Amino acid sequence: MTIIESIGNTPLVEIQRLNPNPNVKLLAKLEGNNPGGSVKDRAALNMIRSALERGEINANTRLIEATSGNTGIALAMIAAIYGLSIELVMPSNSTRERTLTMEAFGAKVTLLDSIESCRDYAEEKGAQEGWFILNQFANPDNYRAHYLTTGPEIWHDTKGKITHFVSAMGTTGSIMGNSMFLKEKNPAIQIVGCQPTEESSIPGIRRWPIEYLPKIYDPSRVDRVIDVSQQDATARARQLAKEEGIFVGMSSGGALHAALQIASEMESGVIVCIACDRGDRYLSSDLFGT
């Protein structure tokens, strides 16, 4: 098996102690088990491999992408596998672990003030000759990765019994691709996204200004959006570690908080939420501080 072949087929595990409803099965898909440590391995592989197959990039192309962290790590890993040069542009408040991991894979890392300024910088540079911007926010290969892999895995592992799918919304690739696949299988499946409350900052989840809303996002594919506070996302991430033995980041805590809210409202059903990365990516932050 190669590293690329180890991407996907991540475990789907039951949330036992935190589930408030015994008639609901609550499952978390552990995307931190991907080799790059997050769900973004899927999109990174599909974006780079598809661009290579279409002839849009080659060994001499310099890749660039704006990222809040996980996509950058995944792209750095995939670029290393294919022998490609990549520059990753990230907000300066990102955890040091993320920068060091990208650099370990051989990527150049540029730090700017905000994710919006990172996106502007990447688009300007990507328009120059010899550069190619992957643009996860507008790239159909982002959500296609989940249509082709994550959705089918969830359908198979729940034996088609899934009733609700819950995901944090950042680039929205995960929720778009899974919605497309799962709704084809059963239109009654409810697709639920979570975003930060107005005053909250949750790594990996965004409440985008309208001018920066990802172009791949189609609101008609999401049945419900739940706002999650930074405090609730943090508390749930800590609970997952201490009570379920599942070590994840704050965005996964946000998705779980939304899933628990839904579980408390239901009579019965099967909820799958995406645990998008591992908690060790946040040890230098105060996520797991006392």
From TrEMBL:
Q: Where is the Tryptophan synthase beta chain-like PALP domain?
A: 5-277
What NCBIfam families would the database entry show? cysKM, cysM, PRK11761.1
Could you say which cofactors this protein requires?
Answer: pyridoxal 5'-phosphate
Quote the pathway field: Amino-acid biosynthesis; L-cysteine biosynthesis; L-cysteine from L-serine: step 2/2
Q: What is the designated name of this protein?
A: Cysteine synthase
Q: Which UniProt keywords apply?
A: Amino-acid biosynthesis, Cysteine biosynthesis, Pyridoxal phosphate, Transferase
Which family would the database say this protein is a member of?
Belongs to the cysteine synthase/cystathionine beta-synthase family.
Which Pfam family name is an example for this entry? PALP
Q: Which domain of life is it from?
A: Bacteria
**Designated gene of the protein:** cysM
Task: State the InterPro entries in the record.
Answer: Cys_synth (IPR005856), Cys_Synth/Cystath_Beta-Synth (IPR050214), CysM (IPR005858), P-phosphate_BS (IPR001216), TrpB-like_PALP (IPR001926), TrpB-like_PALP_sf (IPR036052)
What is the originating organism of this protein? Answer: Olivibacter ginsenosidimutans
EC number(s) on file: 2.5.1.47
Please write the reaction equations for the catalytic activity of this protein. O-acetyl-L-serine + hydrogen sulfide = L-cysteine + acetate
Asked whether the keyword Transferase is assigned, the reply is yes
Keyword Amino-acid biosynthesis found: yes
